[in-house]
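Sulfotransferase domain-containing protein
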Amino acid sequence: KMMAEYRFPNEWMKGDMVLEPGVTPETLKKIESFELKEGDILIATYPKTGTTWMQELVWLICNNGDIKQARSMPIFERVPFFEYKLDGVKSGLDVLQERPRPYMIKTHFRSEIYQSQIEAGKVKIIVGIRNPKDTLVSLYHFYRMNNNLGNFKGTWDDFFELYKTKHIVFGDYFKWYSYWLQYKDKPNVKLIKYEDMHHRMSDVIDDVCQFLGKTLSRDAIPDIIQHLTFNDMSKNPMVNFNALDLLDKDISPFMRKGKIGDWKNYFSEEQSSVVDKHYREVIEPLGVKLEFE
Ligand code: A3P
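Structure:
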């Protein structure tokens, strides 16, 4: 069976978590010992939960809503992907060294890597979450188009079987959130939902501004909201990773659909009940409610 063979090599593993290729044990050590300081911001998300959207939002909030400057520099240089390192491309750590503090950083690691930093309470952390069904569909398409993830050529059903084995890049969704959500009520941690960014972007902007201790001029907000729409972002090369050859845009664009409820076009009833069960067991008891449509 194809899926039985779809195992990532051992050097991509950190315990039960599959790292992205390029995340070496050395990088991991460097990140674990990297001191995050007062004013630094960490955006911690499970892959495909709207990370890029959140990065763009946070960058704008920290830069007086300067859309012009946002359009002049790729997002991975403004808000580097901490643990990422590909051949021929600067690592997230390298990009950071060239940036002035305070740092804005993206990470897909589980919270255990940052435990001491979370306890120290200096860095502010935004944890992004999206309902698991849409996240999995988005991740399925990402597996298909990302040549770095073992050339996955399977169907949705194949991907779902893979999900059930929990052998997924950056680890199982539910385990990932069971780690991060234990910190959600700490004063230096803020949980933001993808679905709220859809329905209530202006509230989310207020919320994030308040959390980060920043203000935006009222007049700037309509343009920011427009800049952050799926329509505008899908046409914006600075947030689309166009320069990265490893993403095959003919298979699926990076900004694919940006919808809530697309999972209904993929999930069978049985698959849906598998995820519902995990949701009820892991997410609901933590007092988090997510929108699925
Ligand atoms: P879909 O594949 O469902 O379209 P990440 O940045 O964590 O990789 O997440 C990517 C997902 O966020 C994709 O989901 C992408 O379309 C969606 N996304 C990115 N920008 C968005 C926006 N401005 N509005 C809505 N969804 C957005």
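The chain has 15 helices and six strands.
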